[in-house]
Amino acid sequence: MAEELVGNILVGQSGGPTAVINASIEGVVSEALNHDCIEEIYGTLNGVLGILNEDFIDLASESQQTIRGLRHTPGAALGTCRYKLKKQADFERVLEVFKAHNIRYFFYAGGNDSQDTADKISKLAQEQGYALRVIGIPKTIDNDLPVTDHCPGYGSVIKHVATTVRQMACDHAAMGQSDLVSILEVMGRNAGWIAAGASLAKRRDHPHDPPHIILLPEVAFSAEKFIADVQRALKRDKFCLIVVGEGLVDADGNYVAAAEATDAFGHAQLGGAADFLQRLVEANLPGIKARTAKLGIPQRAAVTNGSQADADEAFLAGQAAVEAAIDGETDKMVTLLRGDADHYTCETGLAPLADIANGVKKLPKEWINEDGISMNYQFVRYATPLIQGETKVPHDNGLPTFAKLDKVRVQRLLETYEL
Predict the structure, then answer these.
(1) Do residues 132 and 125 lie in contact, with contact meaning Cβ atoms separated by under 8 Å?
(2) 399-400 and 395-396 as β-strands: parallel, antiparallel, unpaired?
(3) In the UniProt entry, which residues are flagged as the active site (predicted)?
């Protein structure tokens, strides 16, 4: 048994929200209430910014109904950020705040960059001899975290994308006369997991169902091949429905559409791949009507199209994080492990934060068909269990209702910090 560590816990959220990231917070809070060594349960508002600003809320004071309601509430209930801890003073401030509030357990729900931040905070605590257990909770719709089989948030986003494709196909079948090209742009910076998920819209044994073309960052884009693929689809069907990941790159590895601006972590701001393809179609195929649609932020907030399996596993990840920390684990991220049986099962494991930080898991090339624009059965078998079940969202007067935290502030104990 690990030595009992008595003190308070702090949980935060970082990066882009998902339809299920709040379910992980529910898992943390519900499990934390089971352990006497945990005295207070705090949430940091807006990730590491909340730590630097000493802006905490008392999660234990929230009603159990509100905490349970997080299971079906999209967005990040604690608020999020894309702030990067850069200077040593930032890290020193984090430890100063932790010490002032007796934070002994820190849980951070986020993606690649967030796990790197958690790892650095933990290492500094060890250098200073401060007893702190740090566990990362996986979160990203991009599904690109290394080691873990899949990430909470992914199942819900691809369920929404595939549903959208089926609905659009019904519309286009009515409107098209072999002259309509429709381009749907989805998220996915450096990996094509989300775009690949659109392939679940195809019926079994109907390979020519929409989407007719899926464009992935893992496959270098060729304008000539693309136009030929579009022409082939239009000869076969009344329309051509394309799904493109925003991180599409050319043969030189350059994004086909990216703004010059970057975020705090140096990532290019993407968006515009669909417009790029629309211009190509209109320039090379006279008389063809090309339309674009961008799912944008709604795709990661679409809890009404959410996967119950996804929400349950997000809760499980939060719960497992607390259990691991109580057992003495630190510097780890919770992972989701797929069972070996034919029937899908999912358990949790742990992986070193250093193995997760800043890594990217690409879509396996062997899951992409030789045509480069469709997925094979290996991907379908992988992704199908992740979209099972419908998130149970309560409605009031015809519209969904979501949980709202009261956000009772924890008293500040330190001087204001200048960012």
Answers:
(1) yes
(2) antiparallel
(3) 142 (proton acceptor)
204-238 pLDDT per residue, tens: 999 999 999 999 999 999 999 999 999 999 999 99
- Rounded Cα distance, 328 and 63, in Å: 29
User: How far, in Å, are 94, 96, 131, 135 from residue 352 at the CA level?
Assistant: 21, 25, 18, 9
Tokens found for residue 316: 């499980």
- Write the pLDDT tens digit of every residue in 184-196: 999 987 899 999 9
Question: In this structure, what are the phi and psi dihedrals at residue 119, rounded to the nearest 5 degrees?
Answer: -65, -45
141 labelled binding-site residue: yes
Compute CA distances 93 → 56, 97, 99, 235, whole Å.
15, 6, 10, 63
Strands 7-13 and 103-110: parallel
d(CA 1, CA 19): 36
Backbone dihedral region for residue 350 (phi beyond 0: left; psi -120 to 50: alpha; all else: beta) = beta
pLDDT in tens, 135-183: 999 999 999 999 999 999 999 999 999 999 999 999 999 999 999 999 9
Catalytic residue among 55, 116, 119, 142: 142
- Known catalytic residue at 396: no
Q: Is 31 annotated as a binding residue?
A: no
How many angstroms separate the most distant Cα atoms in the chain?
A: 73
- In whole angstroms, what separates CA 147 from the centre of its chain? 15
Residue 333 annotated in ligand binding: no
